[in-house]
Amino acid sequence: MVRLWSLIVFGVKGAPVSIGLLILVLGLGILALVVGGGTLHREFALGIMPIEELRLWTVLTAGLFAPGVLGYVVFVLAVFVAAAPIERRIGSAKFALSAVLTQALGAVLGLGIAALAKLFDADWGFRLHVGTAIGPTTWIVGVVMVASARMDTLWRRRIRVGLLALLITSALFSGHLQDVVRLAAAVVGLLLGPTIVGRSARGPRLAGTQREGRVLVALVVAASALGPVLAALSPDAVGPFAVLRDVVSGVPYTAAEVREICADSATDPECRTGLLELRLGGVGPTILSLMPSILLLFLADGLRRGRRFAWGATVFAQVVLLIVSIANYAIRFIEAGDDESVFYGLESPTAYRTIVPFLLPLAVLVLLVLTRKYFDVTAPRGTYRKFSAYVAGSLVGLGVLYVLGGLVGRAGFDEEPTVLGLVADFPQRLIPPVYLQWLEPRFLPDSIFTTLLFEWTGVIFWAALCLLVLGTFLTPNAGTDSDAAERARSVLMSSTGSALSWMTTWKGNSYWFSADGSSFVAYRVISGVALTTGDPVGPRDRLRENVVDFAEFASENGWIPCFYSVTPQVRDITDSIGWGGIQVGEETVLDLENLAFTGKRFQDVRTALNRAKKVGIEAEWIKFPDAPLAITDQITAISEEWVADKGMPEMGFTLGGLEEVDDPQVRCLVAIDEHRTVHGITSWMPVYEDGEIVGWTLDFMRRRSEGFRPAMEFLIASAAILLKDEGIRFLSLSGAPLAKVDDSGAESDPTEEELTFSRLLDRLLDVLGKTLEPVYGFRSLLAFKSKFQPRYEPMHMTFADPAALPSIGNAIGRAYLPDVSIGQGYRLVRTMIER
After folding, report:
1. Is 685 exposed, middle or buried, given 0-12, 13-18 or 19+ CB atoms closer than 10 A?
2. What is the number of domains present in the chain?
3. Rg, the chain, Cα only
4. pLDDT on residue 162
5. What is the mean pLDDT of each run of 10 residues along the chain (835 residues)?
6. CA–CA distance, 37 with 304 (Å, rounded to integer)
7. How far is residue 421 CA from its own chain's centroid?
8. Residue 396: exposed, middle, or buried by beta-carbon count in 10 A (0-12, 13-18, 19+)?
9. One domain, residues 176 and 294
10. CA distance linking residue 160 with residue 137, whole number of Å
11. Is the dihedral of CA 291, 296, 297, 301 positive or negative?
């Protein structure tokens, strides 16, 4: 009891307006229950007719009552989940102002939309005209949208897209005045947010990562799938898209009633209507009619995961819906009055209401085509062969059961079926009933057993299909050549590589293997340049041979060989065979044997360790694929927020992201507090020598924007201490592209002899590094790593033909930023100029 009281006191102190409104709304709800809810609702509900009667107070009072017990339950949850936290974040004064303005202006805008609706849909417009709106969720939605203006990029975008998708779906399908007013309040909040609470310090950047783009597309597809379900399950849905309820709704007839009607006249429209309603009525047919939408929800999960198959299947589904909708339109308005429509019995069959169904799949199809590049994740080889085999097996198994069951219970049909009749009828049992409305049923079930067989065979098949599709999405994703990648990983783990060699296992690489299979080179071909990822992997005494053999392999294929981010040993080899080369970065190495964070040089590091101890933050090792969902969700959110705030796509090639962290061989060290809140994360890749791990290389670094500030210093220092205890020889803090320790120093003017292609490219990369610094901060990163007093190892790029340097420079740029759009390129240039 004491704990409950303390929570109430905390809520009142932190969010007095929210708690006050909660008490007021609940109090008015009790009063309405005493005097009769209908009476108060008539006086205080919003609507066009109440406004015409000059009940102007309804603009505000409509937000002080809820429609029914469920409405009050939703309101209470919304206050504690959304309203109170937002009030504590933006302040009570701004919260109150936001609530009043979004409720009032949202009501006015919603009524305006209701008044205009009759111009393009008389039926919906009439229902909005006579309808009323009441509910406190209007101003709650409004303040959420207002507060989103001040949120970090990731959550601002997710909340806006998710909430607007939900509200638009509700308005178009359910279509009541309250749905329209709630959407209007969200729009008002979206517009007023920057004025009331200001903009986020991170600015209005909308560029995001590939992963976040997938999430947003998946949200839209899921909303498009849920819309028809919402209309179907809401018998009073009146929105312009509510016509889609005819896909799954119907007035049930019994088989006996239908046969009696059809016995009098087989051509009677009521006979046909009865036959069709038998297919649409009942639990089984209703669920079967919903299964395509449920499958789309599963495909939306595949889109969230970036699966290429999910994209293709979703495109196919939208094309089918589009074709069916256009066919329906043609039947109604080209063939002039033929009632044999896919959407049989369409209420108010105007051209507008018939054209509406294909607007939705068309819009989703356009979105999928425009975002095709986001969905490039493929399943391992053979996954979809196995999937096809399972689907075929399910079809055969269910077909056999249907035929045998039909023969056993043949007396339970109104007309006794034959074996061939059951075989011919089986495919129809798998198709959602609405798509069978042009076909006359061969026989109808009369008993419980045959009804179950007739109605649920298709449901079982679609359920199995959904689970099988989900299973393909849960299989580990594969690279361009998963067999070669696994072979390369095996060689690396049993041999020797450089500090960057684990990057050779990343997606996007192709592989050259030595004749004896003991060595390999990871490379990618871009614009005719074979660009490697680090040194050749394999025995170090075979290094020279591997360099030369790979160069010959590339030349035989017409490619320009270029070794990128390689060690001085490879540079020495290529220099000896007449190649050119330049330094492109600096690797920072911590030798752990004698490491001790003592002395003035390590003051910042010791401060981070001491502060973490005081505030209860600890370093904890995890592996991302095995970590609890509560941890991985936080890591994903931290990463997406960090990348979204850059306003540019996440770089690749030698810079890893979440996809590279999701590897069972990669270790992650997280800074986590007593409440299991993740404040930062670093990932560490293994370094092998003769098949043993002798070091770990830092790759992924992310920190919560409002979390423990020195999280990175704490995590790197903790990793050094913990790995030293494990007997690890060294840590590589990796390199920073386009950054060197002597960047800050002025270089002397080169002589004429030095003005070679290599020297010019070196100068060009230097200028590019300085130019990109405001956006990606490579030089700041190198300066940060200097806190740990590392040993510096140069990283080089070597090439056979200096004349090919323009092509090589283009290949490197495209390797790091393969998906930069024209708009992102423009923002990049603008950011560099501004800063």
Report:
1. buried
2. 2
3. 33
4. 80
5. 47 78 89 70 84 89 87 90 90 94 94 85 82 91 92 77 83 85 94 87 49 80 79 66 53 60 65 61 75 90 88 92 71 50 45 64 89 83 89 92 87 80 87 67 76 85 93 68 81 89 88 92 88 90 92 83 91 88 84 85 88 92 90 85 63 76 92 91 92 91 85 91 91 69 45 46 54 52 75 87 76 73 54 49
6. 44
7. 46
8. exposed
9. no
10. 16
11. positive
Say yes or no: 165 and 16 in one domain. yes
Residue 408 and residue 277 share a domain: yes
Place of tokens 């790979």: 550
Helical spans, DSSP H, in 371-447: 383-408, 419-430
Concatenate the DSSP letters of all residues of 160-196 into one string.
HHHHHHHHHHHHHHT--HHHHHHHHHHHHHHHHHHHH
| Residues 167 and 272 grouped into a single domain | no
Question: Residue 147 contacts by C-beta under 8 Å, 6 or more apart in sequence?
Answer: 86, 89, 90, 98, 193, 197
Q: Are residues 58 and 166 in the same domain?
A: yes
450 and 301 in a common domain: yes
604 within domain boundaries: no
pLDDT for res 109: 94
Whether residue 463 is contained in a domain is answered as yes
Contact 304, 374 (CB under 8 A): no
Domain check: are 188 and 282 in the same one? Answer: no
- The reported pTM is 0.63
Instruction: Tell me which residue range forms the domain holding 372.
Output: 242-474
Residue 204 has what pLDDT? 44
Give, in order, the Cα–Cα distances in Å from 780 to each of 100, 715, 773, 785: 46, 18, 8, 9
